[in-house]
Each structure stands twice: as structure tokens, then as C-alpha cells.
């Protein structure tokens, strides 16, 4: 498992995680879940979110992509080091194929999330145009598998 901190697809994601790292002081860029004392409870995301990412969505992938990136539960392409799913506290965000964005919005995925304190997060600004907040939709497994394979098949990994 590796994290490519220079990959173009990781730039916004890592900027967001760098900000969190400063808040939570987690210096490790990437670690395996087994190297964390309790990633389901103590990694800044609700346990159901970690379960959704790692146990449910991650099961659609041909290899184990579970990781903590700067202490945050994520799915990371193990060869290219590109992050394609991320815990977001009580929500989660996934990178999906550009052609699936409208379908994702129809099944309940969102581009904007309003938090209980009234703050809003625009996922496109935070992570990029190919990200949405997940909605527990069955299609998410298929989209993540498509992203995984498109990254695996691409020379540069830049277009998803």
C-alpha cells in the first residue's frame, strides 16, 4: 500500500486531510488498519461510516484497499496510491466516474452537505468534481469498482 502525494487526483484530497492532520495531529501519511489501535472507533469517522467504506464498499474491489490516510479511514488504490473513498465524520465521500455523477445525484448522493451546526461542505470544492457524498446506494459499489479499474488501466491515472 502506498500513497502518491504528488498524483494530480490526490491534490485536493490531501489538502483537506492536511488541514485535518493539523487539527488531530496524525503525522503518518498512510497506515494499514491493523496498525491503528481502533480505527472503527478512534479514527474521526462514525463506526458505521468506517464499516460502510471498508467492509461494504471495499468488498466490491479485487484487493484490500483499506487504509488510514492522515488518520482518516479511506480506500486507496494500492499500486497507484490514489484515494477514492474517504470517511467524513458522520458521512463519507466517494470518487465516481464523471459520467455517473447525474445518476448518483438521482439516487441520493449529494454535492453539498449541511451539518448540524449549520455549516455546509461543497464536496467539489473540498475534494474535486468527481466526488460525491455517499447515500448508501447499491450503485456505489459498481462506481468504486469502475474507478478502481479505470485507475488500474490508465497510463497516467488522471482521467476517471
* Run of helices and strands: HEHEEEEHEEHEH
Q: How many independent structural domains?
A: 1
- Counting copies of identical and different chains, the oligomeric state is single chain
Shape: globular
Helix fraction, binned, reads 25-40%
Please count the helical segments: 5
Number of strands: 8
Q: Strand order, main sheet: write it out.
A: 1-2-3-4-5-8
Characterise this structure.
The chain is of the alpha+beta class. The protein has one domain. Helix content is 31%, strand content 19%. It has 5 helices and 8 strands, in the order αβαββββαββαβα. A 6-stranded antiparallel sheet has the order 1-2-3-4-5-8. Strands 6-7 form a two-stranded antiparallel sheet. Strand 3 and strand 4 form a beta hairpin. 38% of the residues are buried. The C terminus is likely disordered.
Summarize the structure.
By secondary structure, the chain is an alpha+beta fold.
List keywords for this structure.
160 residues, disordered C terminus, alpha+beta, 6-stranded antiparallel sheet, 5 helices
Would you spell out the secondary-structure blueprint of this structure?
Blueprint: H1 11-24, E1 30-31, H2 47-57, E2 66-69, E3 72-76, E4 83-88, E5 91-95, H3 101-106, E6 112-114, E7 120-122, H4 123-126, E8 131-133, H5 139-153
Antiparallel strand pairs: 1-2, 2-3, 3-4, 4-5, 5-8, 6-7
Amino acid at each position: 500500500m502506498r500513497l502518491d502525494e504528488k498524483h494530480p487526483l490526490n491534490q485536493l484530497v490531501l489538502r483537506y486531510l492536511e488541514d485535518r492532520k493539523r487539527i488531530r495531529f496524525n503525522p503518518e501519511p498512510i497506515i494499514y488498519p491493523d496498525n491503528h489501535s481502533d480505527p472503527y472507533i478512534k479514527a474521526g469517522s462514525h463506526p458505521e461510516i468506517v464499516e460502510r467504506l471498508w467492509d461494504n464498499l471495499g468488498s466490491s474491489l479485487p484487493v484490500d484497499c483499506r487504509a488510514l490516510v492522515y488518520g482518516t479511514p479511506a480506500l486507496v488504490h494500492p499500486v497507484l496510491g490514489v484515494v477514492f473513498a474517504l470517511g467524513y465524520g458522520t458521512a463519507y465521500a466517494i470518487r465516481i466516474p464523471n459520467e455517473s455523477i447525474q445518476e448518483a445525484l438521482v439516487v441520493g448522493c449529494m454535492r453539498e452537505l449541511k451539518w448540524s451546526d449549520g455549516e455546509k461542505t461543497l464536496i467539489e470544492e473540498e475534494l474535486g468534481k468527481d466526488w460525491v457524498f455517499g447515500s448508501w446506494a447499491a450503485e456505489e459499489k459498481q462506481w468504486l469498482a469502475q474507478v478502481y479499474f479505470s485507475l488500474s488501466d490508465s497510463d497516467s491515472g488522471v482521467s476517471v
